């Protein structure tokens, strides 16, 4: 029981770290998007390539975050709380 609880705490921390990285990627992608929107958007293929890649990267990071930030026990989404004490769906304790 104790080992299982420790494993869940460890897994929640691991998932939180990965979600923070995904969030940082999304913020950086948004900054690139804002920078591009203020730049001279000529019809250069490179500009549109960067824009498309940036939007795709943002979508992938958002999807990754959505898929990762879940309860290790029941895999239900954990919502917007970055440090929940318990899973709202199954009641599993998520942090010491
Ligand atoms: Zn749960």
Compact overview of the structure:
The chain is mainly alpha-helical and 96 residues long. It has helices at residues 2-38, 45-68. It is built from 2 helices and no strands.
Can you lay out the helices and strands and say which pair or pack?
Elements: H1 2-38, H2 45-68
Helix pairs in contact: 1-2
The chain binds zinc ion (ZN).
Zinc ion binds at residues 71, 73-74, 76, 87, 89-90, 92.
The biggest beta sheet is recorded as: none
* Overall structural domain count: 1
Secondary-structure element series: HH
Overall 3D shape:
rod-shaped
Radius of gyration, in angstroms, nearest whole number:
18 Å
- How many individual helices? 2
Q: What's the total number of strands?
A: 0
Unreliable runs, pLDDT <50, ≥5 residues?
none
Q: Can you put this structure into words, describing what you see?
A:
It is a single chain. This protein has 96 residues and is mainly alpha-helical. It has one domain. The protein contains 2 helices and no strands. Helix 1 packs antiparallel against helix 2. The two termini are 14 Å apart. Zinc ion (ZN) is lined by residues 71, 73-74, 76, 87, 89-90, 92.
Keywords:
binds zinc ion, rod-shaped, 2 helices
């Amino acid at each position: 029981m104790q080992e299982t609880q420790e494993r869940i705490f460890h897994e929640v921390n691991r998932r939180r770290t990965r979600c923070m990285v995904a969030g940082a990627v999304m913020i950086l992608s948004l900054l690139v998007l804002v920078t591009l929107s203020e730049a001279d958007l000529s019809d250069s293929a490179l500009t549109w390539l960067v824009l498309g890649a940036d939007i795709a990267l943002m979508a992938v990071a958002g999807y990754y975050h959505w898929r990762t930030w879940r309860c290790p026990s029941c895999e239900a989404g954990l919502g917007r709380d970055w440090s929940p004490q318990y899973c709202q769906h199954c009641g599993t304790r998520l942090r010491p």
